[in-house]
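Internal tracking record. Fields below are filled automatically when a chain is submitted to the structure queue. Please do not edit lines marked as system-generated. If the sequence contains nonstandard residues, flag them in the REMARKS field before resubmitting.
Queue: standard
Priority: normal
Entity type: single polypeptide chain
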Amino acid sequence: MHAWPASEVPALPGQGRDLRIHDTATGGLVTLDPGPVARIYVCGITPYDATHLGHAATYNAFDLVQRVWLDTKRQVHYVQNVTDVDDPLLERAERDNVDWVALAEKETALFREDMTALRMLPPRHYIGAVEAIPGIVPLVERLREAGAAYELDGDIYFSVESDPHFGQVSHLDAAAMRLLSAERGGDPDRPGKKNPLDPMLWMAARPGEPSWDGGSLGGGRPGWHIECVAIALDHLGMGFDVQGGGSDLAFPHHEMGASHAQVLTGEFPMAKAYVHAGMVALHGEKMSKSKGNLVFVSQLRRDGVDPAAIRLALLAHHYRADWEYTDDVLREAVARLDRWRAAVSRPDGPPAEALVEEIRDALANDLDAPTALAAVDRWAAAQQEHGGTDIGAPGVVSRAVDALLGVAL
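SYSTEM-GENERATED OUTPUT FOLLOWS
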């Protein structure tokens, strides 16, 4: 599966800062110190509907991570998956009387278009669950051979008790885990499981549903968590720098994935930092495909909204914060974009070197984009009020905003 085209990232003078970022597993800020190649895995979409602002906010956060690393002159090895076979996708295809493969391909293509428009840097490896199945099957077989998995009516489950570190990503108690498992794709009430929290590794073939040859596992399809584990281990290995996604993935997805990988490899932890973006709400509730309260990036673009304004609307909120989308949020972003573009349209202006360092400092401090935006606002206001004599300063600002914030002026 192919990703989307990369926009050029301008090179800036000077050196970026090492990133301090909030790690869910430790509950505090950690300073990441990757080697020459920084490694990041971000969980991708289940392509049964278009990209909404909640998706965009998550991918914007991890795009900033990449840009901070690139500014430190590191390479970035970024991997993202596409869950192109799963119950929600099959249910939507049946509801709309369309082929599930065609639906997945259509929505994945639209996602690529949205990411391109928003100038999100693409992953080096963009892998679908279906194409990952040949690598998933051996992992499930290994877990079963190690006594960390068991069969229940043809389905294969992972035993969470096989990982002594289980629970160290989300730090939730058993009651909270059980509740979230039921809400987020698990089946804690299924009779016969060794532990209600045990997640499915391999679902035996069901009548009328797609299935693949699972070797000794029999025909079926993979569970959600093992999909990402197989892709991450294949392309990044253990101990990669950041496991990223929305805050709703901390449990069960990232918790279970970490346990799968740790039992498979005998190493801990799977990732050096578990980083989670906040949720975006509309009309008082989290944007959710199941609720239908969505604002789609593609619809905003069709309505003539500049993608740079959409990105500024996302950047106006700290990535870890939950926030609510309103028309005012977008209006403010459009007005900010207009002010910035007017400011950089002149041939000279106030000195810009200090501003570049302010943006760097803000982003290195747990991706504090709102503080970075406020710094650019001050420069633009000074340009508007007093002008300046530094020839080329507007160009420096334009390049910095593009390179570090992903906003093309």
